[in-house]
Amino acid sequence: MPRNLPLILAVGILSISASAILIRYAQGDGVPSLLIAAGRLDIAAILLTPIVLMRYQNEIRHLVRRDVILALTSGFFLAIHFAAWVTSLEYTSVLVSVVIVTTSPIWVAMLEFFFLRSVPRRGVLIGLVIAIGGGLVIGMSGTGDTTSADAAISRELIGGGLSLIGAVAVAVYLVIGRNLRNRLPVIPYIWLVYSCAGILLSIVVILTQTPITGYAPTAYILLIAMAVFPQLLGHSSLNYAVGYLPATFVSLITQLEPIGSALLAFLLFAEVPTLAQIIGSLIILLGVIVASITRSNRHNKRKQDAKTI
After folding, report:
1. By residue range, what is the domain housing residue 156?
2. Hey, how many other C-beta atoms are within 10 angstroms of the C-beta on 25?
3. Most exposed residue of 56, 159, 187, 249, measured as fewest CB within 10 angstroms of its CB?
4. pLDDT at position 31
5. pTM of the predicted protein model
6. Is the dihedral of CA 108, 113, 117, 123 positive or negative?
7. Measured on CA atoms in the order 214, 218, 224, 230, is the torsion positive or negative?
8. In total, how many domains does the chain have?
9. What is the pLDDT at residue 306?
10. Exposed, middle or buried, 130 (CB in 10 Å: 0-12/13-18/19+)?
11. 252-276 per-position pLDDT tens digit
12. Residue 201's CB: how many other CB atoms inside 10 A?
């Protein structure tokens, strides 16, 4: 195991945790959420293009029609994920938004049940119930910074709902893209899916006549930073770590993202979640951890059974 692996993991988690913070700063510069979602994906795809053209031309040339359809479908749901999640940060706290969007492992398990007939184990269902309970606590909490309790609850529900759509969408993206990922190295895979998602969101930006120019220079720097750090460096670090550490451990480490994002939001924006939001978020994290451990144990058992056979 590389000696610098702990540092690589730390950089990965910090980069991913900074995603919501960079989005908030961009929104503060007046950049529409839809443009933020499209911009970070387009820039990430552009940055990856020279690497793909130099090292993976053969893999790209041998893509069949089915692979292209899978990439487009995966990209479609990844586009929904980013559009919904980025917009959720307009309505709710960083903590709530990030906690809910990281419930994707639970929704992956449920999608596997509905579409792959893979019956979820009891721990996954328990995790789902726990997470739903935490979501209900958050949904009724309000933000604590508006004059009307009803308005606060309404904004929480909108923000939480958009973040949940983002979680389910990224789960669909993972389930659909798994087949394609098995046949492609990680770099051409993410380049292909990021490109599809970015192009789809760019089309929506054009159709909705969302302004692309006229923002402060810092806004465009923030878009580049989102593409470089959370989009490329963060996820690449975690993919690298999986090569040396158990997937269960890496999956659990990623649950530090909401905590890191919340701490950064507190330090940079003085954003203090309500007690109900903190309690609800901790309950959701507990549910995701229970479900993640259960799913990982099941996959490990399948591998052991396959080796025995």
Report:
1. 5-308
2. 19
3. 249
4. 98
5. 0.90
6. positive
7. negative
8. 1
9. 34
10. buried
11. 788 899 999 999 999 999 999 888 8
12. 27
